């Protein structure tokens, strides 16, 4: 018999107890990696100084590619090559100053046996905070032990103290003392009954989540395993973005024109130009209007209660971005769309809850929010946002710490100051979207909000839920914050009740946060308690975070 030998494994480098291995996950798109690389490079310089001050040496696991002009891990395949040369017990730091695709490094982190630290700089620029939170959520879902750290100044004593703690103990602890399990919250019987009833109805009658291509931008944390989702009564209808593209091409120009003119009649502003490579053009907007009609018709075909469209990775070379579509879908007041036969108005007078970037955790949350708010007559529009960044208010309007919640393209106009009149559309950044497409942007109106997040941990669904408010800041302060992040996208100036910046960062297991308004503080409190009860009855492990308005406890 012939003798066969298994392939030989390469020998691993020696383990050095005073050495730290550094990796940096990046985007899949070359244009984004090139633009963002200088910020990553600057961040790594400061992080290296901090690590060396603790008595350790930094070894970068992958070099800067002179041809590509960046030093990111930019694919899953390359990531596997990098991790094959890392000792599985080495001290490992994932440094992020940019948005990153978690699946580029998740495979290596799953198998790593040494201590893992994720680090981000406190900047809204590209942003590393959002990338790190996504990776943290993905690691949590995968049951990987890790520590996390962030900061404006890596030379600050507080940052250095936490970093040294990781070196000495292999983990970092952060305070999350503001949390309270739902069993310890006193919820009025009438609200509890409503939540239980809504959950019972969903489990009995079922609902369909339309998913246009699963697994957006490496967001492992945004995929709910079917065996967990189905127990809530929600089932996925797996749809294809190629079908969305085809359906959009079947929509007539006159139908698209009607959608566009409806928005103009409501006072929306489109920042149009004539150079499609860098400016928003009317042709791009018209194609987005066709996509809007197509999305509603496909959703109706399959009986979807909520849908999610990918962040355009598959369609970016074929058609404009889907953001304008997404913002319209999440608004009750939106352009009417008839069925193909022209007999019925689809989803008349209500949103079709859309979960941006196919974040299924946000999709389940949006569906619950819509049903709760419809039942108790609170505003039905909700949206997810990135936890993009936060800062003190430089205008002196408020002493509260103000978060910048900013989703990558669209929010419902009902959330904006002035509604549709306060809404505008700008071209999506060219480094992400070569085919352009307009956003649906505005400044979120002041008011009471409920924030929440569904996530996966320990093979179970969880929900964190809390209260807060949106504050109105002077235009100069709004513009400062917008220019520190992405001016083309909608912005929300959010204050979380009883949850500090660092508590939020330590606890939150996602790059996204779901936000909905209440009519007033009492209404928002009621909405939070009904939704929490509904989630609990559906089998989610619910945690209240912070407190209510005025410091009142849950």
Which consecutive residue ranges, at least 5 long each, have pLDDT under 50? none
Sheet with most strands: 6 strands, antiparallel, barrel
Report, as a whole number of angstroms, the end-to-end distance: 73 Å
Task: Indicate the percent of residues in helices.
Answer: 25-40%
Rounded to an integer in angstroms, the radius of gyration calculated over CA atoms is 23 Å
- The number of helical runs is 15
The CATH class of the largest domain, by name, is Alpha Beta
Number of individual domains: 2
- CATH homologous superfamily caption of the largest domain: L-fucose/L-arabinose isomerase, C-terminal
* CATH topology description of the largest domain: L-fucose Isomerase, Chain A, domain 3
Describe the global form.
globular
Question: How big a fraction of the residues is strand?
Answer: 15-25%
Oligomer: single chain
Describe this structure in words.
The chain is of the alpha/beta class and 554 residues long. The protein has two domains: 19-169, 3-Layer(aba) Sandwich (Rossmann fold); 184-551, L-fucose/L-arabinose isomerase, C-terminal (L-fucose Isomerase, Chain A, domain 3, Alpha-Beta Barrel), CATH 3.20.14. It is built from 15 helices and 18 strands. It has helices at 30-53, 76-83, 106-111, 128-141, 157-169, 189-205, 226-229, 241-249, 253-265, 282-302, 323-329, 360-375, 475-484, 501-507, 521-537; strands at 19-23, 57-60, 91-96, 116-121, 147-151, 179-181, 207-212, 234-239, 269-270, 306-309, 382-391, 402-406, 424-425, 447-457, 460-470, 491-496, 512-517, 541-545. It has a six-stranded antiparallel beta barrel, surrounded by four helices. A five-stranded parallel β-sheet has the order 2-1-3-4-5. Helix 6 crosses helix 15 (521-537), helix 8 (241-249) crosses helix 10 (282-302) and helix 9 crosses helix 10 (282-302). The longest helix is centred in the first third of the chain and has 24 residues, at 30-53. The N and C termini lie far apart (73 Å).
């Amino acid at each position: 018999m012939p003798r066969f030998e298994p392939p030989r494994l390469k020998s691993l480098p020696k383990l050095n107890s005073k050495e730290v291995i550094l990796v940096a996950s990046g985007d899949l798109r070359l244009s984004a990696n090139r633009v963002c690389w200088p910020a990553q490079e600057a961040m790594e310089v400061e992080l290296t100084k901090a690590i060396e001050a603790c008595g350790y040496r930094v070894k970068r696991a992958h070099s800067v590619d002179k041809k590509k002009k960046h030093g990111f891990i930019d694919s899953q395949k390359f990531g596997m090559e990098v991790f094959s040369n890392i000792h599985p017990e080495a001290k490992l730091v994932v440094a992020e100053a940019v948005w990153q695709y978690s699946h580029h490094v998740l495979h290596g982190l799953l198998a790593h046996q040494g201590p893992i630290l994720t680090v981000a700089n406190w900047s809204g620029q590209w942003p590393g905070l959002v990338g790190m939170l996504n990776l943290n959520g993905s690691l949590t879902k995968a049951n990987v032990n890790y520590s996390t750290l962030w900061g404006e100044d890596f030379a600050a004593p507080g940052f250095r103290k936490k970093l040294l703690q990781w070196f000495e103990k292999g983990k970092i602890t952060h305070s999350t003392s503001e949390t309270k399990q739902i069993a310890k919250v006193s919820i009025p019987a009438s609200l509890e009954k409503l939540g239980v009833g809504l959950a019972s109805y969903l489990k009995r009658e079922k609902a369909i989540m339309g998913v246009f291509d699963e697994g957006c931008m490496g967001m492992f944390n945004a995929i709910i395993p079917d065996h967990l989702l189905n127990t809530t009564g929600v089932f996925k209808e797996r749809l294809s973005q190629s079908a969305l593209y085809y359906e959009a091409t079947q929509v007539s120009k006159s139908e698209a024109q009607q959608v566009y003119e409806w928005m103009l009649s409501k006072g929306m502003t489109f920042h149009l130009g004539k150079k499609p490579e860098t400016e928003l053009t009317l042709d791009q907007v018209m194609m987005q209007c066709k996509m809007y009609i197509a999305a509603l018709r496909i959703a109706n075909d399959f009986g979807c209660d909520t849908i999610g469209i990918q962040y355009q990775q598959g369609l970016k070379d074929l058609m404009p971005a889907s953001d304008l579509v997404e913002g319209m879908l999440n608004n009750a007041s939106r352009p009417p769309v008839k069925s193909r036969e022209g007999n019925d108005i689809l989803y008349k007078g209500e949103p079709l809850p859309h979960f941006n970037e196919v974040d299924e955790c946000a999709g389940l949350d949006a569906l619950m929010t819509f049903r709760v708010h419809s039942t108790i007559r609170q505003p039905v529009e909700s949206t997810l946002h990135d936890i993009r960044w936060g800062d003190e208010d430089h205008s002196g309007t408020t002493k509260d710490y103000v978060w910048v919640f900013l989703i990558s393209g669209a929010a419902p106009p009902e959330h904006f100051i002035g509604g549709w009149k306060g809404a505008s559309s700008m071209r999506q950044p060219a480094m992400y979207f070569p085919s352009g497409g307009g956003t649906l942007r505005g400044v979120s109106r002041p008011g009471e909000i409920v924030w929440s997040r569904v996530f996966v941990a320990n093979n179970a669904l969880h929900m964190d839920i809390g209260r807060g408010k949106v504050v109105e800041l002077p235009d100069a302060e709004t513009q400062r914050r917008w220019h520190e992040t992405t001016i083309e996208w909608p912005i929300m100036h959010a204050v979380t009740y009883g949850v500090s910046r660092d508590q939020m960062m330590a606890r939150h297991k996602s790059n996204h946060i779901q936000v909905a308004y209440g009519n007033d503080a009492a209404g928002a409190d009621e909405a939070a308690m009904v939704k929490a009860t509904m989630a609990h009855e559906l089998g989610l492990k619910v945690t209240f975070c912070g407190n209510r308005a005025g410091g009142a406890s849950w």
